[in-house]
Design a protein that fits this description.
11 helices, globular, Rossmann fold
């Protein structure tokens, strides 16, 4: 009887391992959804810190192990700028990047549907949150000479826009005289052209900016990354070939225009990946994303 019990126990363990491996493979192969991303439970942030007075003006700071000042990734989540999609879904991504040796400052910000969200509040928040790193560096070991912006989807638009702030005219309500300098930008399925993105995501762009390109041309020019070239910092665009939310052609066209403007821009199109694999560290897309961030920061991958 004892041998039978032992045999059953071994078979159960083998079945569990095979099942786990099967789950891991399915995560890599499937076209992930937002709901899949929500299921990925991150470790809590080391610190949640307000950068403004509104309840949504905060960031989550995660610090890697080791001594000395660490490079920083400002992480901006997506969700078509709508209030329904908040910072929680990017936590797993931020935690994985911190584990790779990068301090992460993931920003929450007012969005469409929040009081003060949209134009200009959404842009003011990500700008203010990024510049707040100057305050954080007084208390935490952050290397402000090595800061990159990393954004997904609508967050990719905001990340590229952060690098373009020096291009805004003095008359713009979004103008800042001394924005924090960035080492580069990693755009993950980023919305690079506000007008071309148009009516996707339930007319999110017009809701964000308060009208159409014909009605408010200056707002589109001051927020669309492709209109603000050259950014004067390296940009690495990563896009899933199977993305059904943000067309990969937006990144292709942006890269071509960035290079023509004199910028250094690189594009990686991941075959088999959709929109959400890019923020799932468990997916096969992760290695390319980690490599892009570390490369812009002048870091090398940690060896286990």
């Amino acid at each position: 009887m004892s041998k039978l019990i032992l045999r059953c126990f071994i078979l159960a363990i083998v079945g569990f391992v095979i099942g786990a491996l099967g789950d891991a493979a399915s995560v890599r192969a499937q076209n992930m959804t937002y709901q899949d991303i929500e299921k990925l439970s991150p470790s809590p942030a080391d610190h949640r810190i307000q950068y403004g007075g509104d309840s949504l003006q905060f960031g989550e700071l995660r610090l890697p192990t080791g001594k000395g000042r660490r490079p920083v990734a400002v992480i901006i989540h997506g969700g078509c700028w709508f209030s329904a999609y908040d910072i929680k879904h990017i936590g797993n991504f931020a935690a994985a990047l911190t584990k790779a040796g990068v301090a992460t400052w993931a920003l929450e910000y007012r969005r469409i549907g929040n009081p003060g969200g949209g134009w200009p509040g959404t842009f003011e928040d990500v700008a203010r949150g990024t510049d707040y790193l100057r305050v954080l560096a007084r208390s935490y070991p952050l290397d402000l000479k090595r800061v990159v912006a990393v954004g997904h989807s609508a967050g990719g638009q905001l990340a590229l826009w952060l690098a373009a702030r020096h291009r805004l005219p003095n008359s713009s309500p979004l103008y800042a005289p001394a924005p924090l300098g960035l080492r580069g930008v990693v755009s993950l399925a980023g919305i690079t052209d506000m007008q071309a993105f148009g009516h996707r995501c339930n007319d999110a762009v017009s809701k964000l900016l308060g009208g159409t390109p014909e009605e408010l041309p200056q707002r589109y020019e001051q927020t669309s990354p492709v209109k603000l070239l050259p950014l004067k910092v390296p940009q690495h665009l990563i896009h899933g070939a199977q993305d059904r939310i943000v067309p990969p052609d937006l990144s292709r066209e942006y890269k071509s225009m960035a290079i023509r403007s004199g910028d250094k821009a690189e594009l990686t199109v991941l075959e088999g990946a959709g929109h959400f694999e890019l923020i799932a560290p468990q997916s096969s897309a992760w290695l390319k994303i980690e490599e892009a961030v570390l490369s812009l920061l002048g870091e090398t991958k940690k060896r286990n």
